[in-house]
UniProtKB/TrEMBL annotation:
The gene is TBLA0C05020. Keywords: Acyltransferase, Cytoplasm, Transferase. GO terms for cellular component: cytosol. Adds a myristoyl group to the N-terminal glycine residue of certain cellular proteins. Residues 241-466 form the Glycylpeptide N-tetradecanoyltransferase C-terminal domain. It catalyses: N-terminal glycyl-[protein] + tetradecanoyl-CoA = N-tetradecanoylglycyl-[protein] + CoA + H(+). InterPro entries: Acyl_CoA_acyltransferase, NMT, NMT_C, NMT_CS, NMT_N. It comes from Henningerozyma blattae (strain ATCC 34711 / CBS 6284 / DSM 70876 / NBRC 10599 / NRRL Y-10934 / UCD 77-7). GO terms for molecular function: glycylpeptide N-tetradecanoyltransferase activity. Its EC number is 2.3.1.97. This is Glycylpeptide N-tetradecanoyltransferase.
Length: 468
């Protein structure tokens, strides 16, 4: 399994750079005639040519100093009008407050977004998820960019941005998070993706924002960090029946079910759902915890409330439609010592007569004061204290996710996750998630992996940001 359990083949940055050099040599031998390359090679060459025009570090570039790449610009330098669109198509600003527009995005992503190569699973976004993901504080209607067929009005492409305040080490960056880039499967030869990226860049630049954070399973120029997905089965029998998890050699189904069975009830005294009264104290805890990482999102109070208490404001929302689950641990003195959250993003199961949906949970943000008394988070005592606490907390998170009807719980090798993944029976996935900054050079940030992409508990990760 890879990102969210979807199957794909992912090259490392080194492999990607080597493959690119091979393409350049082939092109040189063919006197620059791109038509003599295979269809896949032509696509890779076009992608390379696009990214070589963008303010991103190249694969072989050595960063000597951190900072913006393109510096001398103002919103007045940016065109007011959208980029020219391919014939027969037109730009469409998506109003996510409009039921019809939201339905169009819902249909496009649910039918065309990331799908595994065997066509077995596909992300199944809900309207509740879109409202949570696209309408964070400061969101702008014109940052939800669509492309429609002129003759029919059908939405065939989409990209979005939301404002985020990033910290890259000690540097504070006003930025956006780019997400949900999707082009209809039948139109991927039209080269709409580069146009979408340029247009969302134009719209963001008009608001005097010049940096962006984005992730991809594929390798682009040039990753800031690489993390790996891990998966903790909650309902192993169902995962096996739908082809998500194979039966390991020399194991029985009964043994595997027993291995992953969880208690029905949590055991930590003082563990309870996050409430509005907890916002200030929990935000302070999270902010202090996040300072240990090199790449983080800085939350305002309003943003914290949106991201971690969104469902709490919708009392009539059915439990099965909940998106975000947030919990705090309160000690005997009434102090919040720990916090964790996870969100639900199910898969559609495309070719199974019994099951139509797979419940998938993703570890989101968390914080603990377990090692605050130590100056060095990596020393033996600090590591031991935090590991002990996180193993207990995340075991409770798995129980709560299981009780919420989720079938698998996913976590990256980011944050301090490597301290508990093995203990809590998270299995390594095939998928890598590459982190990128647009128009910003930075030294590489540790993603918690060895060179062979196995988990490295001794290094741990310095990626603190979590993207949807």
């Amino acid at each position: 399994m890879d990102e969210a359990g979807l199957k794909e083949i992912i090259l490392s940055p080194e492999e990607k750079a080597k493959k690119l050099q091979e393409l350049l040599k082939l092109l040189q031998l063919n006197n620059g005639d791109i038509t003599k390359l295979t269809q896949q090679q032509r696509k890779e060459m076009k992608d390379y040519k696009f990214w070589s025009t963008q303010p991103v570090p190249s694969f072989d570039e050595k960063v000597s100093a951190e900072g913006a790449i393109d510096k001398i610009k103002t919103p007045a330098d940016i065109p007011d009008e959208p980029l020219p669109m391919v014939a027969d198509f037109e730009w469409s600003t998506i109003d996510v407050d409009d039921a019809k527009d939201l339905e169009d995005v819902f249909v496009l992503l649910n039918e065309n977004y990331v799908e595994d190569r065997d066509a077995e699973f596909r992300f199944n976004y809900s309207k509740e998820f879109f409202n949570w993901a696209l309408k964070s504080p400061g969101w702008r209607k014109d940052w939800n960019v669509g492309v429609r067929v002129k003759s029919t009005g059908k939405l065939v492409a989409f990209i979005s941005a939301i404002p985020v305040h990033l910290n890259v080490r000690e540097k504070s960056i006003k930025s956006v998070e780019i997400n949900f880039l999707c082009v209809h499967k039948q139109l991927r030869s039209k080269r709409l993706t580069p146009v979408l990226i340029k247009e969302i860049t134009r719209r963001v630049n008009k608001q005097d924002i010049w940096q962006a954070l984005y992730t991809a399973g594929i390798v682009l120029p040039s990753p800031l960090s690489v993390c790996r997905y891990t998966h903790r089965p909650l309902n192993w029998a169902k995962l096996n029946e739908v082809g998500f998890t194979p039966l390991p050699p020399n194991s029985t189904k009964t043994e595997m079910v027993a291995k992953y069975t969880l208690p029905k009830k949590t055991t930590l005294k003082g563990l309870r759902p996050l409430e509005e009264k907890d916002i200030d104290e929990t935000l302070e805890l999270l902010t202090k915890y996040q300072k240990r990482f090199d790449l983080t999102q800085v939350f305002t109070r309003e943003e914290f409330e949106h991201w971690f208490l969104a469902d709490a404001h919708h009392k009539t929302l059915p439990y099965k439609n909940k998106v975000i689950f947030s919990y705090v641990l309160e000690n005997n003195e009434g102090k919040i010592t720990d916090f964790f959250s996870f969100y639900s993003l199910p898969f559609s199961i495309l070719n199974n007569p019994t099951y139509k949906e797979l419940g998938v949970g993703y570890l989101f943000y968390y914080a603990s004061d377990a090692d605050f008394a130590y100056n060095d988070r990596f020393n033996e005592e600090a590591t031991s204290a935090l590991k002990k606490r996180l193993v207990k907390l995340m075991n409770e998170a798995c129980i709560l996710a299981n009780n919420a009807g989720l079938d698998v719980f996913n976590a990256l090798s980011s944050q301090d996750n490597n301290l508990f993944l093995d203990d809590l029976k998270f299995g390594l996935g095939d998928g890598l998630l590459n982190f990128y900054l647009f128009n910003y050079k930075a030294f590489p940030i540790e993603g918690g992996l060895n060179e062979d992409h196995s988990l490295d508990v001794s290094k741990r990760s310095n990626v603190g940001v979590v993207m949807l």
